[in-house]
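In the laboratory, one determines a bound structure by crystallizing the protein with its ligand and collecting diffraction data. In a computational setting the workflow is compressed into a single prediction: the sequence and the ligand go in, and a structural description comes out. We illustrate the idea with zinc ion.
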Amino acid sequence: MVEEGRLKCAFGIRLSDQEQMEWDLLCNELGPYHGFEDREDNVSFDGDFSVHKCYNLQSTEAVEVNFNKFLWKNSVPFKVSFMLWVIFHDSLPTKDMLQHRGIEVQDGLCVLCKQYEETADHIFLHCAYSHHIWSYFLKAFNISWVGARDMLSFFESWKFNALSGRNKKIWWKIIYVVPWHIWLERNSRTFAGRPKEEEELLMLIKQSIVLWFCDTNVFHGISISQILFQWDSIVHT
Ligand SMILES: [Zn+2]
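The predicted complex, in structure-token form:
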């Protein structure tokens, strides 16, 4: 539920100070939920309720959603998995989702390109800004861009490559670290932060990749400046 514009969760256990702090940080990073009302959720039916309609809904074959395999990886920060979990549940507070919930937004445009409606699929996959970021990494790995309709199919398509060893490990970090930084940049711009050019965001992404591998030997013998400024040489050695 939301209290004073912030996400609030009633946990079944008492959180330690550390856990509470991590939860607060996560809520801050996901961004404020402006416009949400501080009241309990309730259940409503789309249109007039009828037993027939209800029966049809119940009997519709459930679509198998198998995104759990992409979440809660030890090597991926919990906050990133949580963001993806929210995306896969169509609950990321993008402008289209806020409007769908009846919340007024000033304009519905993507803050990254200012051209198209802001939806989760647009900001992460179809926006020119994000496309530039993805293309940088795909080109380095010599892999062609495969247009995906949504994030789940994008994750599914990520396994189609012939990479091995260190490159494979890096590849499977990229699909997590890129959306995370795109979302941080989107939030920063939404709340009047300084816009970062694509090249600047790429640097931050590469820094995060180094951090996520810091307790492994993936970048053993490679300097930080080589990772930041000679990315191609990392991938092709
Ligand atoms: Zn855009």
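Residues 110, 112-113, 115-116, 122, 127, 129 surround zinc ion (CB under 6 Å). Keep in mind that any predicted model is a hypothesis to be tested, not a measurement.
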